[in-house]
């Protein structure tokens, strides 16, 4: 018998997370203690991954896994931006608001799923990391430390909730204190020292026994402004932190260098563990050389070696997450721990499912590359992993306001001994329905007009751990005006005037403005203000939307009619259903300048095409790339030989589409 729920949704609620106030250290017993013996990590007196070995495909050797501390760079768990000029950048796409409490709660919700895949350590930082992945400038203000080195209570309260959950799960947080680009928030060297003292004392006072300390991230990066955080003197802060005790107990301490750099002797000599970074290390053999170089140093005492930041397996095509040829596997083969670093690249900024360091972060295992890392880690560590959830919306194309739709949640890799207790369906971060047994089918009516975002959340228990697993976000398109769909009268030829958009979304600093311009076919859209800036097809860029009925799926060749005054404003991005494929980005050139011209190529000289997956109504999107650009018309045709002349063919009418 098929089970389903039918629910009207006549409001968009903002979900309010109920946070548990952490008890003081005196009122609770800590459950997790980390220790180091030689080059091995122990949790509660037992080697991590006790008894586990791993044999990669095609390799007859069995590699020792026990004693390693596989980790991930998840530094933004307590992120907030104290700069009112930049905080708007981090708005959640489903609610349009930034919420540091939601960020921390969703981090906590995801922790058990990471644990299930074998993650035993994560890096979190009092000054975060770049919320863009990599940044030349950092105007935002993200620091749990005040200018005098004292600790901000709101940041530390969020950190305490995360550390409490790690203690419950048996995980080992690596707490970083300083990050380049934010260390200037402290007024002087004395404040830097007080920041270390206050942080270490706070951890000890709270009774945590599972926390490692990383003084600063990449101490050799030139962006640091305080000398004590630079390579010649950073060992002083390591020694300072190691010297702070409570009842004879102290914390393990180290610091990191930039990608591809072997730490200097002054750091290796005093550190409890040695941190390496793999960013920029394209050749895994270089990773192996770095590990060997540390072990060959006169001052090396046999400490554990951890690579705790590495983006190369997913950024370098030759690496990947297979059994050979990547920095992860090379580290494991050389008995060094490895850490995953992930962020949204420029062409992914509109995809909330990508990245861990980009803010706002989706802390779930919500993308293919996250899944590839966690699945490989689960295999290497003989961990159970978690089921995978995917949303399937039966409707094709657009959803009209008031219509009922069916949503199915597909569950893969579900273990029979860990039955799912319930699956919740969320729309714009509000729980709207739940189902407690398969098949997990929902019927929804009254979805909010616009682009509501939907995800599914499953809950189950393994032993005494509640595990929360979520599907990737799916963006719906709910249309309130069915008469504003472009319906072609000529087969497979759609001609749109830019000013006849259905939806207009402003960017962070720019917007499309409707104006009159000589020589155009009518009103045109102007990307303003003209500041000579370049943007990707993401939330920072203003976007135009056009709802179009496609009678046939397949390849459509794109022509754009535009005008550019110079080479500083002569390109635009085109996409379908909110995604700009690489071949439709940087539509260019529009020459001769100061004339209305048709263009059908990208910057590489390739034809611009959109792949329509199925017949029905879809949304064609246009994003600003260079400000100052003028947009007149769009043309989509199945005929690769078609070439428009003058203003182009007669416009496709807008009407109701059945």
Task: Give a summary of the structure in a few sentences.
The chain has 9 helices and 37 strands.
Describe this structure in words.
- With 658 residues, the protein is an alpha+beta fold.
- The protein folds into three domains: 5-13 and 389-478, Immunoglobulins (Immunoglobulin-like, Sandwich); 41-385, Glycosidases (TIM Barrel), CATH 3.20.20; 482-655, Jelly Rolls (Sandwich), CATH 2.60.120.1620.
- The chain is built from nine helices and 37 strands.
- Strands 26, 28, 29, 31, 33, 34 and 36 form a seven-stranded antiparallel sheet that branches.
- Helix 3 links the parallel strand 9 (172-179) and strand 10.
- The longest helix has 17 residues, at 100-116.
- It is globular, with a radius of gyration of 27 Å.
- The model is unreliable at 1-27 (pLDDT under 50).
The count of β-strands is 37
SS-based class? alpha+beta
Name the beta content range. Answer: 25-35%
CATH homologous superfamily (4th level) name of the largest domain: Glycosidases
Count helical runs.
Answer: 9
What's the pLDDT, averaged over the residues?
92
How can the largest sheet be summarized? 7 strands, antiparallel
Q: Separation of termini?
A: 32 Å
What is the CATH topology classification name of the largest domain? TIM Barrel
Helix content: 10-25%
Low-confidence stretches at least 5 residues in length (pLDDT < 50)?
1-27
What is the highest CATH level, the class of the largest domain?
A: Alpha Beta
CATH architecture of the largest domain: Alpha-Beta Barrel
Shape: globular
Query: What's the number of structural domains?
Result: 3
Radius of gyration: 27 Å
